[in-house]
Automatic annotation (TrEMBL):
A Pfam family the protein falls into: HTH_5
NCBIfam families: HTH_metalloreg (NF033788)
Top-level division of the source organism's lineage: Bacteria
PROSITE patterns per the UniProt record, alphabetical: HTH_ARSR_2
Extent of Basic and acidic residues compositional bias: 132-151, 178-187
Organism (species): Kineosporia babensis
Protein name: Metalloregulator ArsR/SmtB family transcription factor
Length: 187
């Protein structure tokens, strides 16, 4: 079995043991499992939530999240390997943005699902959604003097083969919220 990009031998062995004999017709769920595993990390969701508002440099994300450069860069590498974010050079810095507008649709579906189960999570904000021609696109970049919008970034379709995420340890960062709150009781 070839090891997907970004996975160690141990990851591939665990994955291969867990899915050695998937039920007939269920072989195609592996890509979805990798995606959900990547999105299952709170720090990566926070990074994606910030990128939904526009391009960010690593230093900007460090400031917003209060995390070390190595932590932010590691999570961005995982997100990039999964095809969720992309980067472009600007001077000596790299600017990161969402790679696909469909991610915002997934955020909307997640918000709706969790609200239906009694939780309220805000993964991206309504004012961000209205800034582009795409119903759920973004276009806001809150870094002054920046002429390139996130809508430009996520509007281009990627034809590259999706990468598999590396096995990042689950980050534990107390006090980092995803906008998680219980819905108000309705009278």
């Amino acid at each position: 079995m070839a090891i997907p990009t970004g996975l160690t031998n141990a990851d591939a062995q665990r994955s291969s043991r867990a899915s050695a004999n998937p039920p007939e017709g269920d072989e195609d769920v592996t890509a979805a499992a990798f995606l959900f595993r990547t999105l299952g990390d709170p720090t990566r969701l926070l990074i994606l939530r910030h990128l939904a508002r526009g391009e960010h440099r690593v230093v900007d994300l460090m400031s917003h999240l209060g995390l070390a450069q190595s932590t932010v860069s590691g999570h961005l590498a995982c997100l990039r390997d999964c095809g969720l974010v992309r980067s472009r050079a600007r001077g000596r810095a790299s600017l990161y943005s969402l790679a696909r507008p469909e991610l915002l649709d997934l955020f909307d579906a997640t918000e709706s699902f969790l609200e239906a189960t009694g939780e309220r999570v805000v993964l991206h904000h309504t004012e961000v959604r209205a800034r582009t021609g795409h119903e759920h696109g973004t276009g806001h970049d809150h870094h002054a003097g920046h002429e390139h919008s996130a809508a430009d970034d996520i509007g281009e379709a990627s034809t590259a083969e999706p990468h598999r995420p590396p096995n990042h340890r689950r980050a534990q960062h107390p006090g980092m919220e995803l906008g998680h709150e219980k819905p108000e009781p309705q009278a």
